[in-house]
Amino acid sequence: MSLSREQIIEIVKAVKAETLTIDEAERYLFIGIYPDGLPKPATMTVVAYIAINEDGDVEASNDRKDALDRMSDSNGGMEVQVVKVTLTVPAPRTFETAITVEADKVETVKIEA
Q1: Which residues of 100-112 are buried (b: 16+ CB within 10 A; e: fewer)?
Q2: Taking the model in full, what pTM does it have?
């Protein structure tokens, strides 16, 4: 797994604020894992490579070679152009919730095999 630029910036901020040691930061950066307890970045930057052949067929990937390989394998073509797109998008979030189902409201169904 790799960290986004924004996640690396948050790790550096945590080291400067002394909420994360340099050794911890190096370990997280080396492994590519974002530490729990740090604020999640509001945005993330992603790079996409879009391969387009002369017929208008399109293949995309976050890896240039992969986009070209997909184009070659799926569509072919004599000429292909690659467009590199850098996007800053809202960072994905994991929302947590708790659901309690009261026992007297549960319907039990018997299934016979």
Answers
A1: eeeeeeeeeeeee
A2: 0.56
